[in-house]
Amino acid sequence: MIPIISIVGKSDSGKTTFIEKLLPELVHRGYRVATVKHDVHGFEVDREGKDSWRHKQAGAHTTVISSPQKVALIRDVERDMSLAELREQFIQDVDLILSEGYKKDVQPKIEIFRKEKHQELLCTKEDNLVAIVSNKPFDVGIPCFSLDDPKAVADFIEEKFLKSKKEKEITLKVDGRLVPLKPFIRDFLMGSIRGMVQSLKGCEKPKKIQIQIDD
Fold it and tell me: I need a labelling partner for 133 at 20 to 30 A (CA). Which of 30, 124, 141, 205 fits?
């Protein structure tokens, strides 16, 4: 299952700025990262007069905008969806989901705190707070990192949420083309192949399995 980490903090704490620093650190290490921004006030992504806007105004429940470089989906929902629901329905083929906001969601949280802006933390360990990023030291039983050290935060995320996942990866290539795998398919293939190989004599504890089929 794709791990989710919520970057939370009070207004003007610098959540977006820190995510902009953290993302390159993770991407440079070879991870594919999706981001989710929570906006409780609603939003509009297609400008008035554009074809996609006209489709929605005409009554379309779902509108997809496609180009050779990007795909965007605009869809009506009946309520504010949880991060787990968003992951299940819309996000796949990534190693990590970083959300900005979602302070009330159950997912692990990293709080951004600036002593010039706020007096006390927004979350506690009971809220699944796993780390703090601040220009003020905290001793609350969880790691506290500097605002100027996204590398250390990336190290923490990699060790706590990504290392075991990276060690147990599976890729599928067909005619030299990498085929994206949904989490269910990936886990099914990995479990099935590993189980069959482990049943073979001398292959009880495989560390790396390679299969190639040529037609």
Answer: 30
Check: pTM over 0.85? Answer yes or no. no
Helices (H), 29-149: 51-57, 83-90
CA distances from 102 to 37, 38, 59, 158 (A): 8, 6, 29, 21
Q: CA angle 6-8-11, nearest 5°? A: 150
Three-state DSSP at 127 gives: helix
What are the backbone dihedrals phi and psi of residue 165, each rounded to the nearest 5 degrees, phi first? -70, -40
Per-residue model confidence as pLDDT tens digits over 18-73: 999 999 999 998 899 999 987 765 566 677 878 777 777 878 788 888 888 888 88
Q: Where in the chain is the domain with CATH 3.40.50.300?
A: 4-40+92-167
